[in-house]
Amino acid sequence: MERFKSKRVHIILEKDGMKVLMLGWEFPPYFAGGAGIVCYELTKEMVKMDDVDMTYVMPFGPEEVLEQHLRVLIANNFKGKKIKFKRIPSLLGAYTSQKEYSQTKRLIDQKRAKMGIDNTTSLYGENLLEEVYNFAERVNTIVDDESFDVVHAHDWTTFPAAIRASEEMKKPLIVHMHITEFDKSGGNGADPHIYSIEKEGMEKADKIIAISEKVKDGLVKNYGIDPAKIEIVYHAKIDLGPDKNLDFPKFKDKNKVILYAGRMTLQKGPDYFIEAAKKVTNFYKNVIFIMAGSGDQMNAMIERTAQLGISDKFLFHGFYTRDEANQFFNLADVFVMPSVSEPFGLVPFEAMGKNTPTIISKQSGASEILSNVLKVDFWDTDRMADQIVSVLRHKELSGTMKKEGKSEVEKLTWDKPARRCVDIYKDLIGKK
Amino acid sequence: MVSLCFYFQVHQPYRIRKYSVFDIGNKKDYFEDRSGTKLDNKWIVDKVAGKCYLPTNAVLLELLKKHPEFKISFSLSGVFLEQLEEFAPDVLKSFQDLVETGQVEILSETYYHSLSFLYDKEEFRAQVELHRDLVKRLFGAQPTVFRNTELIYNNELAGEIEAMGYKGVIAEGADHLLGWRSPNFLYKPVGTERIKVLLKNYKLSDDVAFRFSNRGWKDWPLTVPKYVQWLNSINGSGEVINLFMDYETFGEHQWEDTGIFEFLRHLPEEFLKHPDNNFKTPSEVVDAYPTRGEYDAHSFISWADLERDLSAWKGNEIQDAAMDRIYDIGERVKLTGNDKLIHRWRKLQTSDHFYYMCTKWFSDGDVHKYFNPYESPYEAFIAYMNVLQDLEMEVNDILKERGFVKDGILVEPRINL
Question: Which is the catalytic residue, given B150, B172, B252, B284?
Fold first, then answer.
């Protein structure tokens, strides 16, 4: 706790404004999913608005990542901006499961032991839930000293902290739903404890922000939430930044390239991509399918391509960096996001921003707002193959989709969702 | 003296079903979606018949019988009439009943509601001829006034139509061409001798067609006396008021509960109260009034959108690619001498197919006002190009068999077709 206290000298009190306490669990470049990027983009725009004074509280990640994380945060992106960071030691991560948490903790404890640090004083709780409550405890020490006008919390790990802070200060609570335990588990074997934290957070919240109609429907259906309490605030574009390396591999000369980019888990539908790929090869011999991203389905997918006799047309890349993502999108003649279930899905924005014709499943939240893409039911691999072949076959189609797609995402800027959030704050502050 | 001239456009395309790459070479059922959704042509004809064609025809028949002075005109596309013969003979009969009163004029257009004038003049004349044959057969009518698809018009079209023997042609009364002048007179198209052009009064037409049910409009609700007062005010400053609109205005665009049928039912009586007013069909207008100036449409105009140009059907890459390809294969298609195949090729020329590929509203994110039975312009393009691929393969096979094509190159036919 000593360490934590010492950091607090960095807090600068700013002129009076709407004081927002935002609780999240990740922030770029340390992130596991899209929610961290969303927090980054949202807050960046929100602090530009005159009356917003933002304090972002997040748990620590493992120390090695943390140092890098801090340097980037403070040095580059938020210099001179009215945003302050408070860091609380924790092992929370976006997609952390109980099991993963324990593994990570064991690794860190081992490392610390090697370095001669006494683990009996470990700051980390024994399991994820305990960590969630630890986080709540520490956030509470902040609101002991300082008051805020509104509390805005991202996903369940921050809810116990957010509920406590909001009750302590008697200030409105907004919970922001990016994904639910129900979505993650596909409805089967949802952790009852997590489920109840989510439900409590939403019930106690004054307003719920859902990132898509799809998420909203799930909250109403699976959590019994009053739809009138839910507002949809869609994400905006993700810019991958300038291209660093555009040397194309040799196979690009003779082949059309079809790209899958995302985690290799069943939820993302890699198996449907492969079934569609098989059908595409009936029309095109010179095609290469790139599957970028790691995940528990990787080996199964490699095996499936072999079974179908098309493994010579597949490249599995595994985990990829942002620079590599740039390269992939530039290389690809078409990008496919075949997700079985996707609360939103930011990757199509990245692809379209790089002029890549894009096909997305109708089961993604992004399909609710994107127009200049082709949409397909994830299970309809005939249709998916038809769309892929059509994009490859007609340069006018890919040309129009590139042009219109790029100009569509250019218009989807973060100031709009940021403004929506600020308006929600104002509305609630006025009411309480 | 002021004449009111009604022309109603009645058209339905043969929409292409979701025809995939897997269907190419296997299936010829291009237009046979039977899903009971918005690509199902029979379903649409049935739906619109119930909401618009049958009830509106009933109101009009009653009016025509009640007021022998009441006159109207229709332009019915060939592909529409063909669908009526196939799906809804009772609806066809109800149109025939109207024409039988002798107070209804049928206008001439291209059978396939196509943009052929822009691409292939010979094909254009052939389609006009086919439409003439059809309306002769179904209505015993011989049109003397022509209207082109979507009122697409320029000086050259007027000249072409005059050469084909028509005495009148219909066009949009575009502000940028009229300037300070009024659409309520006949004009002489630049470069022609005798033909007269009837210009749509878009303000008064759109009051009914678009604004009738708009509660945000300052003149809502539009009552018959109010509207007739506007019409009467033209008396003395114009000779003819051309009210041109889609027939689906009645019951389909403006639903029955907006009062549109009651409006129609009482309009003639109210209008005829003024002794100087009368109704005329387009050909009667042409006979009755002289031209009062020249109408100079150097570039193409249409009745679509605010732009009044061709950008709803051509201009983006996918529209142009599709359009170029359908006309490119024309020569080969005709060479097959296979009437069914030629008919299928021509059904693919209907303007709606290209309208569905338009991206100009789509990109603004305003998907709702975008009327499209496909999920996106891209889906429309995919289905269209897949069908075209199938058609072209069929054509090439036939030509190869007959020795017209060698090594993929068309050779001169040696027999006289």
Answer: B150
